[in-house]
Amino acid sequence: MLEWNGDELALDISLLEQVRAARINFSDRVCAASASKDDKHLAQLRSEPTYLMAEFLYSMKVFGISTAEDIERFADLHNDYVVSLTRDPAKLQRLGLSQDRALASMFTADTKPRLIQNWADKSGAIDQSNLARFLVAVMSSETCRKTLIDFEAAGFMQRKRSPYGTMVVWSTGMIEEIFGEMLRDLRLSLQQLKIL
């Protein structure tokens, strides 16, 4: 049972304040780094999908997904995760996913070769729809598309139509840097407050 007073609660509140400050600082850094200063665009960059996309791209960099073999293994892990989700209807419901939508996010004999080829052609390059597959648990494919358009306007992503009519995207590395700085600053401030 949670105690609603005392030193532990004070530490919890300090943690909450630090996390909130880190998220605000992240949004401020993103907007400051954005090539577009349009108010509507900056409002979009302050949204949750920006944070989630940045977290995903940062994680890919941290875990060293750089070669075609790496992205193939990552796709296989994603497929295993989706299969586990389909066996857990309660978790699917908590994530707000239907079984059909989860299954549609799997990499198939049609989509996986394109994923690997794009990455082999240019490290980090991924078809926009394949990126949406990876992000199925946190955003819709339409939200992913709109976020990538915002990222392109900000200078965080580059987008190019492939000869096959798909949109291929790759990061400029800026958003991962901003996310990493936010995490590092948060960790250091928590250590200073002796919360960690």
Describe, in plain words, how this protein is organized in 3D:
- With 196 residues, this protein is mainly α.
- A 3-stranded antiparallel sheet has the order 1-3-2.
- The mean pLDDT is 95.
- The radius of gyration is 19 Å and the shape is globular.
- It contains 10 helices and 3 strands; from the N terminus they run H-H-H-H-H-H-H-E-H-H-E-E-H.
Features:
196 residues; 3 strands; mainly alpha
| Mean pLDDT figure | 95
Model regions low in confidence, pLDDT < 50 over at least 5 residues: none
Q: List the helices and strands in order.
A: HHHHHHHEHHEEH
Structural class: mainly alpha
| Helical residues, percent | 55-70%
Task: State the end-to-end distance.
Answer: 22 Å
- What portion of the residues fall into strands of 2 or more residues? 5-15%
Shape: globular
Largest sheet: 3 strands, antiparallel
What is the strand and helix layout of this fold?
Layout: H1 7-33, H2 39-45, H3 48-62, H4 68-86, H5 89-95, H6 99-104, H7 111-121, E1 126-127, H8 128-134, H9 141-154, E2 157-161, E3 167-171, H10 174-192
Antiparallel strand pairs: 1-3, 2-3
Helix pairs in contact: 1-10, 3-10, 4-7, 8-9
